[in-house]
Every structure is written in structure tokens, then in C-alpha cells.
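Whiteboard transcription, Tuesday session. T.W. wrote the C-alpha cells on the left side:
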């Protein structure tokens, strides 16, 4: 049993904590008082680096589920505390900047351990470890299950972070080089079995995958119900999108779809709410918990910054995480892609 502290007890952190609690000694830290049904909670200012370092040092493993603006600082704090760190914050800073310091401290910093980045990276890391790859395309989205809902969307993570995703230039790989395109550009329609037709557009989701060697073409696009981009553009322009999403999209059932095409192989994941959890919480938070479970085994190979594709290169880690997801009925099709 490992002493784990989860930073942040919101929609993602609370799910991570509940999943880990039966097998580990879990504490959840948040700026607000929380009641998580028997899980220990503490009130802490998680923007205070010194307090975060002290909190981490009192535990054996740290899981980050903070807003993006605090994620990089928390990763730095984990290095100072000399604790392995599994993160889902999707912070804007380049995690690789921390690699040398993490190695010197003898710890592993594991960023982007969610859906995409996360599951998608894990798949790509395993695939590239097995054989050279020519072309990789990721399409991922969380939408309202009912496409007629406002904007076809349900809030499942920070609206401010979503707005940032919609305006940050997108990077992708073309002819072996990293190039950029405006966010929301190069629209295409994607047919997802069991879901229907979604629109897909560039966002900056490849992140550490841009450093995967030897893949001449790689893209990632976000998927939404058709018409979403045209509906949000005026609100992005006048700065009211986050407020409008908060006003109109706070309730309802969601749906998650992921399609990863690696050369001629297509891997898909479609998930819906279950057991009182949103589809996004299931596919994001339970994925983070699966990575944390692997970290808690003490079998993580190496130190430094280890994004999910680095863990995917380890067949034992890859199987452990995919099988942990399958136990929650988060199922890839085919069920065992790139199995040795």
C-alpha cells in the first residue's frame, strides 16, 4: 500500500482518488473543504510552492489533477520533494524542460496521463517500439451525448483551459518537420462507428509526441458535433466563450470518442457515462489512476520526464495500463492493439 497524495479534488481528482483508495492510502488536497466519503482530505493552498513541496514530501507518490496554470509548478515541486509525479493537468509549458532536474533528483515526472494526450500516446509509444511507422493521425473529442444541446457540448473540464486549446496554434508533423496551423483550422468530417459524423479541427494536442523520431506524418485534431466551431467563433472573438459554456453547458450526459490511425491500423474508443461518472472522467481520470497504479508498483523504468509514449515502449507497463482500463470497461477496439 502506497501513500498517495492527489492534488486537486475536482471532477478528475475525486475520481482518481476513489479509484486508488481501495488499494492505497490516499489523501486529497484542495483549496476547498471536501467530503469524499471516507477518503482523507486536507485544505491547502496549492498555488504555494513551498506548501506543495512539504505536502508531497509527506507522501510516497503524487498525482496532479490541478488546473493547467498550476501543473508545471507542481511538477517542479515534485522534483524538489524527490517524489514521482503522475499528472493530468495539460499545462502549457514544455515538460521536457524539467528532464535534467528530474534525473538529478532521481524521480520520474509523468505528464499528460489522460485520454489524449494519454491513451493515444501510450498506443503510439508501443506501436513505434515494435516497428517503424509512416503516418499517425489522432482524432479525439468529448461532446454532449445529445447533439442538440447548446454547442453540442457538456463541460467536463475547465472552460478556461478549453478556450486556451481553441486559440493556441496547433503543431503537427509534415514531411518530417514540425509545422504550425491556426487552432480550429483544416476542418474535416470523421465517421465514428456507434456515434455518427463529427467535425474535426486542429488543436495543439501532440505535445511530447512531436519528439517521437522517425514518423514523417503525424496530426491530432479535436472532434465536436458538426456546427460547433461556427457557433463558438463569435464568442471566442468577444471573449465570452468560457462564460457561455458555464451558463449553457454545465449539465447533461457526455460522450467520448477517440480514433488513432497508425499506418493501416485503426484503434477506436467510444465511452459513455457509467456508474455516476461522466465519460470524460472515466477515460481521463481512470486513465490517470491506471498510470498511478503502475507508478505505485515501483516498476517504472528510468527517471526524468517520462510522457506516456515512453511508458508505452515498456511492454509490461503498456499491458498493465491497458488491462487496468479494461477492468473499468474502457475498451479499445481492437481490444489488444500492438500486443507482443
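and on the right, the sequence the group agreed on:
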Amino acid at each position: 500500500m502506497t501513500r498517495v497524495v492527489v492534488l486537486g479534488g475536482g471532477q478528475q481528482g475525486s475520481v482518481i482518488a476513489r479509484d486508488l483508495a481501495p488499494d492505497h492510502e490516499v489523501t486529497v488536497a484542495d483549496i476547498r473543504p471536501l467530503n469524499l466519503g471516507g477518503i482523507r482530505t486536507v485544505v491547502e493552498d496549492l498555488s504555494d510552492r513551498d506548501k506543495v513541496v512539504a505536502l508531497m514530501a509527506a507522501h510516497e507518490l503524487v498525482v496532479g489533477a490541478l488546473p493547467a496554470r498550476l501543473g508545471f509548478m507542481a511538477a517542479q515541486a515534485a522534483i524538489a520533494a524527490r517524489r514521482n509525479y503522475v499528472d493530468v493537468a495539460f499545462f502549457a509549458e514544455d515538460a521536457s524542460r524539467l528532464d535534467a532536474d528530474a534525473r538529478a533528483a532521481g524521480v520520474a515526472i509523468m505528464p499528460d496521463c489522460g485520454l489524449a494526450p494519454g491513451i493515444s500516446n501510450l498506443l503510439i509509444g508501443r506501436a513505434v517500439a515494435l516497428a517503424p511507422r509512416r503516418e499517425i493521425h489522432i482524432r479525439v473529442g468529448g461532446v454532449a451525448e445529445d447533439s442538440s444541446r447548446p454547442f453540442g457540448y457538456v463541460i467536463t473540464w475547465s472552460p478556461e483551459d478549453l478556450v486556451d486549446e481553441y486559440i493556441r496554434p496547433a503543431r503537427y508533423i509534415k514531411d518530417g518537420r514540425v509545422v504550425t496551423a491556426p487552432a480550429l483550422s483544416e476542418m474535416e468530417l470523421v465517421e465514428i462507428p456507434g456515434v455518427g459524423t463529427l467535425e474535426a479541427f486542429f488543436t495543439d494536442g501532440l505535445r511530447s509526441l512531436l519528439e517521437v523520431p522517425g514518423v514523417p506524418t503525424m496530426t491530432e485534431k479535436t472532434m465536436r458535433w458538426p456546427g460547433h466551431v461556427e457557433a463558438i467563433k463569435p464568442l471566442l472573438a468577444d471573449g465570452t466563450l468560457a462564460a457561455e459554456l458555464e451558463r449553457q453547458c454545465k449539465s447533461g450526459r457526455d460522450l467520448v470518442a477517440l480514433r488513432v490511425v497508425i499506418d493501416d491500423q485503426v484503434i477506436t474508443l467510444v465511452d459513455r457515462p457509467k456508474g455516476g461518472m461522466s465519460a470524460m472522467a472515466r477515460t481521463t481520470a481512470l486513465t490517470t489512476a491506471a498510470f498511478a497504479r503502475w507508478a505505485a508498483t515501483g516498476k517504472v523504468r528510468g527517471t526524468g520526464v517520462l510522457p506516456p509514449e515512453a511508458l508505452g515502449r515498456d511492454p509490461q507497463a503498456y499491458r498493465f495500463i491497458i488491462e487496468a482500463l479494461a477492468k473499468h470497461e474502457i475498451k479499445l477496439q481492437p481490444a489488444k492493439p500492438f500486443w507482443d
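Someone added at the bottom: The mean pLDDT is 96.
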